[in-house]
């Protein structure tokens, strides 16, 4: 059963003026998201919006029906269902829970009513949509031009930020699917990061040992993503 909402723990909601934030929170329920739950599928109607608090969600695009690529990651800095700000209630991407935890959830219909009622919410989410568009473009360029080891380092840094912990779960099979490469490619990249004592890896459990070293091993897309968010949400 959903539990009562105690407070906002999502950066988008916390950025709202007090009156708008209080009204919006009254319409949410706090739900537990389970690892590997599918929250949206491409071409399907958006039934709920999610504002993660302690969970995080992979945004995935299918390729030729037999492969997939992660193009985004949503944690407490963002939301799932942003296309509703454009009046579009069809999901463009698949959304898969990568990190179990809590999220604020609201049905799509009352959320659209909140959008119509609150100019502050509209303005905030328009800026966030702009950020998402920039990050999607960055992910496309990253997948095309950067080597697997640097992309894996970026992926692990992004995950650590949203997990709010140095330790989290991620099997080689799952990481390979997210990066759009073969499992052997992820294994080779992860082993290289381990040999440099940047990460520890055992039975699907990943631990960040050297955050600064991992940032140095990552491509510039990690910094670019953070800069895009900082500029867009300032």
From TrEMBL:
Claim: Transcription is one of the keywords in the record: yes
MF terms (GO), sorted A to Z: DNA binding; DNA-binding transcription factor activity
GO cellular component: cytosol
HTH crp-type domain ranges (all copies): 146-212
One Pfam assignment: HTH_Crp_2
Keywords carried by this UniProt record: DNA-binding, Transcription, Transcription regulation
InterPro entries: cNMP-bd_dom_sf (IPR018490), Env_Response_Regulators (IPR050397), HTH_CRP (IPR012318), RmlC-like_jellyroll (IPR014710), WH_DNA-bd_sf (IPR036390)
The species this protein was found in: Accumulibacter regalis
Protein name per UniProt: HTH crp-type domain-containing protein
PANTHER family: CRP FAMILY TRANSCRIPTIONAL REGULATORY PROTEIN (PTHR24567), HTH-TYPE TRANSCRIPTIONAL REGULATOR ARCR (PTHR24567:SF74)
